[in-house]
Task: inverse folding
């Protein structure tokens, strides 16, 4: 039996991510994806049984990176505020480096074709993990008694929208919103907003 090549699979996933993001699921054709990846359609179907499975795999690869990073920041008890800031730095940088994935998800939210499968396989587990970590931080007094669910929604929303709307923001600002300098400003602004909302205020003596 032919051995599957991880590099070939990654090329297919990279090509699929790019085309799904720019054209949507219906607009991206399997032949286009195969050609961009430098393989034939038979090779693509060797790795993925259909286009639907390919899209789910693209989503899973990116969300998996967020899932795997969460314990690095939230399983350490020392300096909880610093850990949250570090996670926000990571999350914003990760989204900016995977901006095509963010646009792909915008397509999926509009079409709703794969939303149930994506939510079941990836979004709900990551959301549950984040909610558990925030709930634990509240219990230990590290952060204020906020809604864990809406905290996650707010962090995701303020960063995903920034990526999706970056072409508009470029026209408004005259600068590339995804440039290193603008991403650095975005990180600082998000951290200022989130941390001021989460960290308990010291009582005046």
Result:
């Amino acid at each position: 039996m032919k051995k599957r090549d991880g590099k070939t699979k990654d090329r297919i996933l990279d090509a699929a991510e790019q085309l799904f993001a720019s054209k949507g699921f219906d607009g991206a054709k399997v032949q286009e994806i195969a050609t961009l990846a430098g393989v034939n359609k038979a090779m693509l179907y060797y790795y993925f049984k259909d286009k639907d499975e390919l899209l789910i795999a693209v989503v899973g690869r990116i969300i998996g990176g967020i899932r795997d990073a969460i314990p690095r920041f939230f399983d350490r008890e020392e300096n909880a505020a610093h850990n949250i800031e570090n996670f926000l730095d990571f999350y914003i940088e990760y989204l900016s480096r995977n901006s095509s994935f963010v646009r792909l998800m915008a397509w999926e939210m509009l079409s709703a074709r794969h939303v149930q499968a994506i939510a079941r396989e990836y979004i709900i587990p990551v959301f549950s993990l984040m909610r558990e970590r925030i709930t634990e931080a509240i219990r230990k007094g590290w952060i204020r008694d906020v809604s864990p669910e809406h905290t996650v929604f707010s962090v995701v929303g303020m960063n995903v929208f920034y990526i999706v709307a970056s072409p508009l923001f470029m026209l408004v600002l005259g600068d590339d919103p995804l440039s290193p300098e603008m991403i650095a400003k975005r990180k600082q602004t998000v951290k200022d907003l989130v941390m001021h909302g989460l960290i308990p205020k010291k009582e005046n003596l």
Observations:
- The chain has a mean pLDDT of 89.
- DSSP finds ten helices and no strands in the chain.
- Residues 16 and 55 are 7 Å apart (CA to CA).
